[in-house]
Amino acid sequence: MVAGAWFCLLAPLAGSLAIALAGQRISGRQAGWISTLTTFAAFAGATVSFLDLWAAEPERREELSTAYTWLAAGDLRVGLEILVDPLSAAMMLIVSGVGGLIVWYSMGYMAGDDEERRYFAYMSLFVFAMLLLVEAGNVLLLLVGWGLVGLASYLLIGFWHHRPQAVAAAKKAFVMNAAGDATFALAVVLLVWETGALDYPSVFADVGGLSDTVVTLVALGLLGGALAKSAQVPLHTWLPDAMEGPTPVSALIHAATMVTAGVYLLVRAHPVYEAAADVQHLAAVLGAVTLLLAGLVALVQWDIKRVIAYSTMSQIGYMFLAAGIGAYGVAIFHLMTHAFFKALLFLAAGVVIHRLAGEQDIRRMGGLRAELPRTHLAFLVGTAALAGLPPLAGFWSKDAILASALELGGGLGAALLAAGLLGTLLTGAYAFRLYFAVFHGERRELAPEPHGPEAAHVPEHGEGPLSMLVPVGVLTVLAAVGGLLSVPGLWHPFTHWVGEVAEPLVEASARQEYGTSAAAVALALLGLALARAAFLRGRELVALPAAWTLLERKLYFDELYDALFYRPAAALSALLRREVEEPVIERSLDGIGSGTVQVGGEVARVQSGLVRSYALTIAAAVLVLVVVFVAVR
Amino acid sequence: MSGPGVGWYLLVSAALFGTGALGVMLRRSPLIVLLSLEIMLNAANLALIAFARQLGDADGQVFALAVMAVAASEVAIGLGLIVAMARRDLPLDVDRASALRG
Amino acid sequence: MLATTLIVLPLAGALLVALFPLPRLATAGLAFLVALLEVGVWIVAVTRFDFDEGTLQLGTTREWVESLGISYAVGFYGFSLWLAGAAVVVGAAAAGYALFVGRERPRAYHALLLFLTGAVVATFAAQDLILFYAAFEAMLIPLYVLVGVWGGPRRTAATLTFVVYTMAGSLLMLAAVVAFGVTQGTFSLLEAGTSGNAWIFLGFAVAFAVKAPLFPFHGWLPLAYREAPVEVAAVLSAVVSKAAVYGFLRIALPVFPEPVEDLTPLLLALAAAGLVYGSVLAFRAPDLRGIVAYSSMAQMGLITLGVFAFNDLGLDGAVLQSVAHALVSASMFLLVGMVERRCVTGELALLGGMARGRPALATLLLVAGMVALAVPGSATFAGEFLIMAGAYGEGWGYAALVALGIVLAAMYVLRLISAVLHESRGAAVREEALDLRPGELALLLPLVACLLGLSAWPALVSQSSFPGDEPARALEEGLR
Fold it and tell me: Whole-angstrom Cα distance, residue C454 to residue C380?
């Protein structure tokens, strides 16, 4: 089973290297094929690995495979090792499967771009990094994958690097993630000192023996990394800006896979979090805060991709909520269905943007239902799945989360449940606001000339080439039926599969599930109705101007961070340069020089030029010496 | 060994040395300064020879000879300098020859 | 024997280049060949070196001035062999770049570069304090001339500051060497025992602190790195600064255990200050060289932090980071030189947009930059992680500062990359400015390949730097 996993890991790397090394010798289209096929090859490898695992005895479904010792120092040995278990196998399938579809889609979407080859090299690099992240067999290697997906994300957000906004967004994403990486690294350092090993089995076996403080700090450090990577409050501000990247990138990295890595981490490191229950609950609370905040902000966005980006943040908030209360299988289940329907939404949005020659402002869209019938259907399925309407994928997974919160009970469970339910109302509202604005109403005039970040794409008539339509179709089917892998009261193969790795702390009964489902669907439908009513009257959902401004400025987080971190750092740098470097360090030599000259001038006065006074001085000195010698003797 | 002890010689030598040193320090004519220097050197010579006699070996006398040779060459240069100064109508006053002041 | 060969080969090459009046290109070519041959010899040395043993190898010991207890003793430990490897590789890259650029008065220039390489290798191999001092000083002489004659417009000021700072450090070290030798009766590190004299230790420490440089001894750094010819700056920051690391590892820690223990808080504080201070200044430096120079200072602070954490993790990390930083810093400086050649300036405000149509430049700058900011998975990441883990042993505050350094590094390196490559074309970037030429690629690709190779397997260095792979114990036992 490890052979398939290794193949899965290395195929995209080989693809990326092949494209990079071939350079100008291959066309952009060939690069696209290399990238697509290697990603699907990775999917095949993952499938093989999964089937092997499926066939194995449940208690033997865990294998650690080490290639070689990557880093060694003193007693510390960190191998290049992968862990194949139900959790990583599920993630491998999601990443390589959805990844393959999206890379394929890119071939149509990016056709004609000047730098297609570079794009596909980056995409393959990302798939490799993401697979490394989910397959890593020790914490340090997980951190390596963690950082490399951040790198690929930076490269792809800033893919159109002639646009200042894209470059700024890329830098912002990288720096915020570097902050997360730093806290993650500190947590790993703590583990090195406290457990002496970094592979999951040894680390998790040792967690029980650690002091509360240490466990809490480790959990906090890991949580910092997870918050940054998954764009959760308070490290969330980079994700909306990241929409500067090409749309397939947003679909793959900033919706389906990379941003959900934080959830994977919470589940993977669940023994640590169970030992530090406060931190685990903190993760749940932050998830709840994020899902509300992002849902609110999504109500006032005009950019089609930004609306979806905020919905991503919001949905990941649900996953954090689930992982934070110990419903691990459910969290990963929502991760999977979310990957389906959110990738679908982005790709369908990509078709729209493609059709409108780079237009992203929903105020200039409308009435596209007739023009893009198939895309309309796909988008509708995605929207309904996002809103959690039965029987689509999002319905099953989101409601399982809410039921788990109900099962948890107590004040925390009640608060989380309330937040989650309120979130479904918001989700219904913003999701259908977007849907109506884009596909209903009257067809607006196209902008006079192509503009926006994706303007490089020549508008095509129809809904794009086959390479774009087929992945959208496949994802539509997955978003429709993917949720049937877990039906309350009937069967739960998926959550049980993941549960083999992470035994859930809460398991809702079927009755609880159907109860919360009814409430959630009612609220989502209410949101739908509100959105429809507002749309028909030509009004916005947020009527209060002050609230609108507050939300449009994203609750002033950007301004706050600018004032808290960037400006002080820049000011400190300027201050050090002005007050220390230039006057003290750089002038110190001048000071030494002029000081020497001055002292020399003073001393020179002794040199009177009067021979007789010299003689007198010598005589006096001799006399003193004689006296000294005599006295000393 | 007969004659006065080494102490007497040293006394004379010290007196001579003091005379010379005072001359160097007090007089302003370069010629006199040079003469005073000679007196100091000879005071040292006297001490050397006295010790040589006291210890009964020739080292001190040899050294005195060397000092005389040095003194002779020193006088030659010194007198040459004084003559050169006189020729250029420079004042023969050591206090006014202070071009080396710092 | 091989240690001696490694020292003598470039010196002989320097003599050859200086004496034979070959044509311009032939002179530079000959020097480059000698530098490559040196790399070859080093590879042979690596294959002969028994890393499991890890003690002093490939060495020679001869009496030199018997009455004073001075000997010609050279040889390599694991860590010094790696440092020497970085030195010869960077030296070859520098010689190649000088050949490519075509410096004025090539005989003198190339002879000095080769001499510099020889002196650096001798420093890393020296096992006798007088020999070490001689090599340490011999390293500086070619640098004075290379900066002072071939440097930029403010070269005189740069040289003067450099001379004053390094001389001050060196004289203190000379005093310390003499005091140590007189009290011990021998200058040989192989025979001398330990010393508890804090003053002697301080003499050494200040010299190394100037050379690294540690805060606040870095007054020479901005000018020297800005005014030196770019390949000299590369050697200076990549390799010459590592003489300090060697000094700390070979002399300070094994020979002065008690003073080190007493002064560790001070040294750690200085190292941490240098790390933060360099990072913060690099973050707002107005030009390419400023960023690379201050980042180099930050890295040296980091490495010193690892050294004085004085545990297995920190020491192995410091050696790994030294080698990785040497390679990355040389790559960055050469890339800066290549950008400056095309745009005549390194002012960030005047650059930009160079990625468009110049894929090789963009790719290599990105790769080098990403390694420089220690993206997880890179050799520098491995080094920084080990140092961070080591520093944690001295207090969590130090580990947190290393983490802060990682974030700041991301900020200043991305600023550099974007300023050169991204957004619209800068005022100083001509439309027709070329992508990297094959000659430039031939120099950079091997350096970057070394970096990527080391990233794939950092254990190669970290695992084989000290006898018995127990750094702290080996140093406590005086590296015997």
Answer: 9
